[in-house]
Amino acid sequence: MAMKTKLSLAIFLFFLLALLCSNLAIAIGREETDPELKTCIHQCKQQRQYDEEDKGICMDKCEDYHRMKQEREKRQHQHQREHEHQHEREHEHEEDENPYVFEDRDFETKIDTDDGRVMALNMFDQKSKLLRNFENYGLTILEAKGHAFVSPHHFDSEVIFFNVKGRGIIGLVMEDKTERFNLEAGDIMRVPAGTPMYLVNRDENEKLFVAALHMPPSSASAPVNLEAFFGPAGRDPESVLTAFSSKVLQAAFKSPKGKLESFLDEQNKGRIFKIQKEDLSGLAPKKSIWPFGGQFKNPFNIFSNNPAFSNQFGSLFEVGPSEITSGLDGLNLMLTFANITKGSMSTIYYNTNANKIALVIDGEGEFEMACPHMSSSSSHSKQRRSSSTSYQKINARLRPGTVFVVPAGHPFVTIASKNNNLKIVCFEVNAQRNKKLAFAGKNNIVSALDKTAKKLAFDKSAEKVDEIFKRDEEFFFPYDVEDESKEEHGRADE
Q1: Where does the record place Basic and acidic residues bias (predicted)?
Q2: Statement: 305-481 belongs to CATH 3.30.450.40
Q3: What's the predicted TM-score (pTM) here?
Q4: What are phi and psi of 460, to 5 degrees?
């Protein structure tokens, strides 16, 4: 019995010693990682008036302080991480709150080869329900290098091409023949749904840029599909014929299976590829003898019209459905081209009916729009919204390739940088009976109000209202803003 007691005591002392060593090791480890704890323990040991028990209590307090410090730092770290996550969420929310602007990341690459590419922007309403008026439209941009050939294909949508830059050739197939047309910068070409076509860059050095609006055929209202159907092709691009069974193909073309497979395997150059000069000459359009034209209308150049608005600060060209020779007759569509002089701006205006899809093709600048459909994240705006309508400013930097959309009724403005002119091509859908109504400049809607309405709307005399809103320029103005700090300094010196 005594032997068992001594053994139990020995085991107890062994575990106690191990625990003390472990705590000592932890304390030493903490001392090495935390100089403040090390200093505190050292000071406890150096107190001559302390006995061993007092020193132990002192070191325990050092440990308690160290634990409290660690917990406080942990809470601060967690709070910082939560703040960072909140900032990230707010940043993402801010990006989501601008569904009206599309950058490179919003485009889908449909074709990408060494000699050219096609980028597509489809299903606008997938970015936001606010764009449901744009759900049936799509936008593609073709970039083709010198002497590049885009293989014959067709779409199940109506396509309106705008030749942004370069010199091209478009070939259109209608039943038993192909009609070919030269394309110059500013040309508009309408291609009916299902029409087989090909495109060529006839310039050896300059790139060809073509923007295309895809819209449903007149008999349909479903969203468009921007996938091209390549018919006269092989394996790359893949022909639509490869989807059919070999028996169907043999019966349709009266050719054996092996011969058909060998024939389709010949084409492996890709959807866009470079061609030789002799091939290019064979694609050159033939001159038709007037008045015997073909089934397709010639391209219509937007610059052949006089500008709708023009002064030293910018110009605006328009082509609408009333232009019979433009090819847009029968379509509820208008094309516009704005060239805003560097350091200038358009007026603040809105379209009464048309929904605008705008593509920046050159220069840099800014875009601002008033939107009543989006709530501001600021509490002040939320308080205002509870009692009255609050408008949020939608803004974005503009550069080549940026797309922005403006729903009907939304006032907006575009501003050119001080370095370059800002050039924008716009597809305006639902353009029938559309009016552009401006808030500033000659013939603005505020100046057109009767005197009593002006007085009631602004609580000012009609003369004071006219002082603000009247100016001689129409539609385009200089973007010169007085320095408010200098103005306030001037007032203080008076």
Answers
A1: 69-92
A2: no
A3: 0.75
A4: -135, 165
